[in-house]
Every structure is written in C-alpha cells, then in structure tokens.
Amino acid sequence: MSHSDFVYRGDQSRALAERDAHTLSPSYTRSYGFAISHGRGAEVWDLDGNRYIDFAAGIAVLSTGFSHPRIVKAIQNQAERYIHIGATDFFCPEPVKLAEKLQQIIPIHRAAPADKRIYFANSGTESIEAALKLSRYRENRSHLIAFYGAFHGRTMGALSLTASKSKQRGGYPYIPGGVTHVPYPARSDHDNWADAVGYIEKFVFKKVPPHEVAAIVVEPIQGEGGYLVPHDDFFPRLRQLCDKYGILMIADEIQSGVGRTGHWTALEHWDVSADIVCLAKGLASGVPIGAIVAHNDVMGQWVPGAHASTFGGNPLACAAALETISVIEDEGLMQRATDLGEYAAQRLLKFMGDHPSMTRVDGKGFMLGIDFCDANGKPAPEFRDEIVTKCYENGLLMLAAGTHAIRFAPPLVLTKEQLDEGLTIFEYCIAQTEEAMWEPAS
Ligand code: PLP
User: Fold this and answer.
1) Exposed/middle/buried for residue 339 (C-beta within 10 Å: 0-12, 13-18, 19+)
2) Hey, whose CA ends up nearest to atom 10 of ligand 1?
3) What is the CA angle 82-155-127, rounded to 5?
4) 280 CB under 6 A from ligand 1?
5) What is the predicted pLDDT for the residue at 191?
6) Which tens digits make up the pLDDT trace of 171-186?
7) pLDDT digits (tens, 9 = 90+) for 189-228
8) What is the set of domains in the chain, with CATH numbers?
9) Which atom of ligand 1 is nearest to the CA of 288?
C-alpha cells in the first residue's frame, strides 16, 4: 500500500503524507495514515486533533512514553551545557556515567560489573555492526551463526545476519558472507525445528568447524520476525554449546531489552547471560543511541582506532539514557510491564476464545505477539493488516510483525486504564474485521 491508498482521519494528516511522498525516501515502510502532532505518556494526538492509545511505542522505543517530563528536563539541562564534544577523542562525563550504570544492570556471562566494558553507537544496526566486528576480531574465528526470521538491522554487516523478509536483502548483491542461518526454535512453530542447538551441532558443524565460529547472534524473543518466544531449553543449551566451543553468544536485545519484558534483558527469563549484549531502541526514550556491553576479556582486545564513531557516546543521548534508566527504576516500570503484560495476555487469550481468526498470543511483559490466520489455519497477512488499519481508524496505534502477527509493545508507562481502553478497541476491530472479511473454511 502507498500513501495514496491509505485512509486518513483528517486533511492535515493527508496533506503531510502527500508532502512526505514528494520528499522522503520511498524505502520507508508506512503502515497507515497517522501523522503525529504531539504525545504524552502512552497517548498521542495526530495533526487533525484525534487522540490515540499507543500500543506501538514508536517501534518499541518510547520506554518512558512520549516526552516524559524528567527526560525532557534531562535533555534540556544537558543541551544548555554542551550537546557534543566527540566522546571518542575527548573525555566526557556522560558516557562514563552511563557505562558505569550499564555495568551494574546488564548481565554478561562470567563478568562482575567491573569486568564489563561498553561501546556506544547511535542505532540498533550500529550496535550489531560493533558486536559483529568485535566478535570477528579474534584470530581464525570469522564465521557467524544467526537465525531465520531474525532482524538485526540494515547496514551491510547487520544485513548479513538479517533473514526476516527477502525484500530487506533483495537487490543488494554484495552482502558480506560468512554467516550460516539456522531455524529459530519458536515454541509456537509446529515444524520439526524445535532443536536448533542439535541442528547446529549436526548440520552446521559439518560445514564450518566450531573453532572457526566467532559468534552465534540471537534475539531472545524474535521481534520483527513476529514476536516469537523460543522453547524453554533453548538458551541454556545454546549457552552450553557456546561454552563448549569457545563461541561468543551475542544477544540482540535491541527490541527486547531495557525493561520491556520485565527485566533489563529478556535473556534473564532463562537465567542465561550472553557474552555481548546489544542495546538501542528503548535505552534513551527515543533519543538515538546504541550500545554494546561485553566482558573486558573480549572488548579489551580492540586497540585504539579499531572501532569508533563521531557521535557514539553523544552527551545528549547519554543524559537521556541515564534518566530513562532512573525513571524505569523510580517508577517501577519493569514490574508494571510484568504485571500489566500478564493481565494483557490473559485478556487477549480470552479474546482468542471468542475470535477464530486469532491463533496465538505469546510473549513476555510488554512484548506480546498475536497471530491471525484464515479459517483454514493459514497465515492471513491482509486480514492482519486490515485490523491494524481499523485500530488506527478507532484511535489505537498498533504495528504488524512477521508474516501475520500484530505486536503489543506499548510504552512501559502505559496505565491500566489506557491498557483496558486500548484492548477494548482492539477487540472491537478484530470483531469488525471478522465480520467484514472472514471467510468460512474451504
Ligand atoms: N535488532 C533488532 C532486534 C531490531 O528490532 C532492530 C530494529 O527493529 C534492529 C536490530 C535495528 O535497529 P535500528 O533500526 O535502530 O538500526
């Protein structure tokens, strides 16, 4: 669908979409006609004055919601002192303070806080680039293992790990090699691929000797792939495999991290920690930032100049991130994600009993995926897209994920009242779409 096919809830939104079409890259994927005016917490208004409950959080970014007063203040205070210095070339307090905080809260395999080191980037894909380069920096280990369905970003290195949608890779002939993809063991997938670790040992190690594998890169919960949760034995076994062969485990927590699932990192649900953790999205409540956290035994191998970027460790982004972490702690937002996420899952499971198009509700905390299928049990992407559009028309922002899922990824500040209001709209839209499009089984 292009902007001209969309429904708009007013002339201002339509007019902006038209200017957008004449100016911005056509590579951006638009979902529907929403055009922002302003937001507060988990509510947002469009240019035509319509109000929305936000279950999308700017693609799982707005951990503290729109313009949390403490984040605004932290950005203002920092901007008044300095916005930039070049934290790779000059010493600067904000990245150091943020790194000290990340040392405390981000678990790393066999690392005490003081053993951890942090590299700052500006986005998710840049965090992945950093992790990928770091893991390959070791002698004679160049191969990477990643998972089908994974989305790790769109710069060339990250793209070599991404295997989510073919249009993301299509048209780019020189994507770097040295990556083997294996099936992701989603617990909702009824194909025979539950044993991903066995697959690596049995098949991948026939092609690549384990001692040449630098790292296994994995999303604890696959995000763009459809909000898929793996089987419970997967991460403990993957950890064992990595330890056995000296392979680094890289956890892409870019979507699942920073409290979204009720912990700082989603891997904590399985009591497992990675060797390198990649963060971005929710870390600074919407100010662009990326970070990787690793054991100094690993990151300490980098020599000055081996990797850096002008904006990495930007003071404004670091100040926003430090305040984001404080707000999450002070307002108990991880507990809220756990409690309200469980409540949302229960309400959604109840909807599932009443709506035959809903075939899966799964996830953790504020990271839930809901699948939609046709009456024959086949994925129904167009039906799903219609529900997402209907939600927009009725004042609820949602986003699709994977082939036929809708993601529930609200700001962590979402209130119980907002959650109930949004879920009621969601169920209404499912019912309306079933009435309009649902076809009996053939
Ligand atoms: N990794 C994961 C799990 C993501 O969900 C995303 C973005 O959706 C990325 C990496 C890439 O992040 P960015 O879009 O900031 O480059």
Assistant:
1) middle
2) 152
3) 50
4) yes
5) 63
6) 999 999 999 999 999 9
7) 766 578 999 999 999 999 999 999 999 999 999 999 999 9
8) 3-67+332-437 (3.90.1150.10), 71-330 (3.40.640.10)
9) 15
